[in-house]
Structures are given as structure tokens and as C-alpha cells.
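User: Predict Endonuclease GajA/Old nuclease/RecF-like AAA domain-containing protein's structure from this.
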Amino acid sequence: MPQQLIIQNFGPITDLKIELKDILIFIGSQASGKSTVSKAIFFFKSLRDDLTTYLYQCYHEKQFEDTITTFAKRAKQKFIKMYGSVLQFPEMELKYQYGNGMEVTVKPSTNNQFTTVDFDDFFKQKFRDLVDQSRSLNTELQQMSSRGLFSSSREISAIKAKEAALFENITKEVNQLFNDDRDLLFLPAGRSLITILSQQRYNIDMGEDLISGNTELAADSLIKLDYLMQNFINRIDSAKPIFNQAIGDLIKEKLSTSTNSETKRVITLAQNIVDSILKGSYRYQNGTERIDFGNGKSTLINFASSGQQEVVWILLLILLLILNQRNVFLVIEEPEAHLFPVAQKQMIDLIALLANQAANQIILTTHSPYILSSFNNLLYAHQLGLQKSEQVEEIVNHNLWIDPHRLNAFIVEQGTTRSILDSEMGLIESAEIDRASEIIVNTFNQLFEIED
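Assistant:
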């Protein structure tokens, strides 16, 4: 059973119901609600990791009472961090169905004084079971401690093994509860700014973890970022040390250890696409980010082109996911930003390559007709490739073909969504792609008629 998102009377959205597929594309004018929808899906999916972390914390802090209420409060705080205060929407309701009978709902309290995150009975029962497991092991270890049985290294190792088994089981059962075991990654719009700011952490207010090189620096003078921006910077920071060596060397190392010929071809294809878009090689050395152009020429990331700043971390993170063969749920806002149309097409090739590796799931928000046209080419290549694979392969690599059954595209307008995927043709409707062009051409024709 597929996962579903339902939104009513929230922000620009009045009534929406979406069934999730492996690839979801949202188009629409500015302020239509594309980001509202993609952030909502990410919020509900990310509760899985929040719960895992919270259960670990409960165990270490020996807090086993009234924990579900505390977790619900944390979930509410996270929702507000992502959207700000939402009390101006007294009739809002966001509901996510996880495809296994569980659902979570966000709505105002009955008196509209605060926002609530409600978990159903299915969740509550599993939550209690996991807390009971933690409590049981904690009680067992306390009894051992009271008998003075912690004297030998063998016994200490046994305790650590039991704790490791508990944490492994918590992770496994929470993944099953949320019906998803993918890594979660949100790449927000405005990445060029974040690429620069990631080197200026002393100027950034990271919320609870305030970062400042000068303790006397007033908090209100720092750059304030929202939750998703903070999360993106943290992901960048964790990935930077990997690139102490050149990307080419990193890939050579991976290719030398892989025994799967198809995996090697995928990695090589990914490298070629990244090189074509970035037109250089990223390197992180001695705390400095650079783009190397070869022949000893390079530039600091701060002085790279706006396009390079915008895409560098999309490219690098996707490349790492492909290299490590990690399953991911990925949201990319405006992948076309600052890119020439040819590079936009190449970006979609890279995203398609990632989507076709294992069980990945990808959401895109876009304004670009080139993005939609690029997807159509890959959808058509798949359909035609079923009958004429060798001929199609000469034009489009088979690793980029997209099965239409795995994709849906929506236009967000007038408070709801409408699918623009022609189910019979298996293509995104060309009328939606050409709508802006028609307006521009019509204006030109009207002006031309005046000249006549």
C-alpha cells in the first residue's frame, strides 16, 4: 500500500491528496505551495530518525515515563521550526499515511491555542513496546551493577553487546514502523548562498547550537537560517573531509574495489555527468573549498560561478550516494537554479541515474520546462527501449531510462494539485511544458500584427 499525504487549509493549500511514487515532480508558479508540500512529506518521513534518536536518549538518561507526550512536543517544535507559527490556520490538517496502517496528523488544538502532532494507536503501541525493551535492559543492568558484577572486562563487553543489540533492534523496528529505511536528505533552494556561508559558520545562528567565533557577538547580529538550511549545512560539513582527496582519486579507489561491472559503469557515468556540469573538480583542503580546473588553475568556492556554487553540493552528495550505494529519500528544490538548459538536462540525467539505483525516492520542485522535457525524454526512452533497446541505448544510456509507473508529476495551483502525467502516453503533458512559451509567442505575434 503506497504512502499518502493529505493537506487541508494550510498555507496556500486548501485541499490536497497525493500518493507517493519513486519520483515526484511539482511545478507551479511562485507561492503556489510546491515547497509547502515537499517540506510536509519530508517532515513526516523525518519523524522516524527523530524517534530513533529520542529512544536512544531515553535509554541513556533513564527516562521511561510519559515519554510519548514529550516526543509529540518535540515533533511539534520541529514542525514550527520548518514552517514558523501556524496558528493563523485554525482549520488546517496535515495527515500522512505510511502505507502500513499507521498515520500521523498535525492540526490545531481544540481551542486553537497551540499546534498538536497526533500519533495513532498503532504508533503508540509500538512506542510503548520499544520503551519497555529499553526499560527492561536498563533494569537488568542495574541489578547486575548492584551485585557488583562489573568487575571484569568480559562482563563489560557483554553489557556493551546487549546495548548494541538493543539499539540495532530499535533502529530496525522504527524503520518498520515508518515503513522506510532510506537515508533522508533535503536540498533547499538558495544553495549558492549556503555554499558560501558554510565557510563562515562563525557568522551563522544555528539555533540551539549557536556558533560564534566571538562569544561577545550579539545573537541578533548573526545570520539566521531555517531548520532545513541548518540541516543542509550540517550535511555539507560532515561530507567535506571525504574530499580531502581529489574526486577522481576517490572514484578510482571505489572502482578498484568493486567487482560488479554494472556498478563500475554507473559510477563512471555519474563521474562524467558531474564533470560536465561542474566543469572542474571540487577539493576541500586545510579548511578551504576550491574548484580545480586543471593545469594548476583553481578558484576558491566563494569566487566560483553562481552556477558552480549552486550545484556543487547537489552533485557531490548525489555522487557520494551512488558511490556508497546508499538508499535515499531526496528532496531537491529548483534543481535548475543558475544552470544553462544543457546543464539542466545533465542534472536530470544524474538524478535519474540515482533514482534507478536500488530503492531510492526523489521529489523535485521546479519552474523549468527544460526539466520536464528532460524527464519526458527519459520516460520515452524507457518505453521505446522495451522494443528497441540497442537502438535506444545508442542515444540514451539504459541506466537513465525512467519507468512511467515509478513517476508522477503535478501542477500546484489554486490550492490543490493536478496530475500532469498522461497515463496513456506515459509522458508529462506537453501543454503544461509549453504554456509559458505560448504566452510569450502570443505576445510576440500580437506585436507583429501591429507592425503589419
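Residues 4-181 form one domain.
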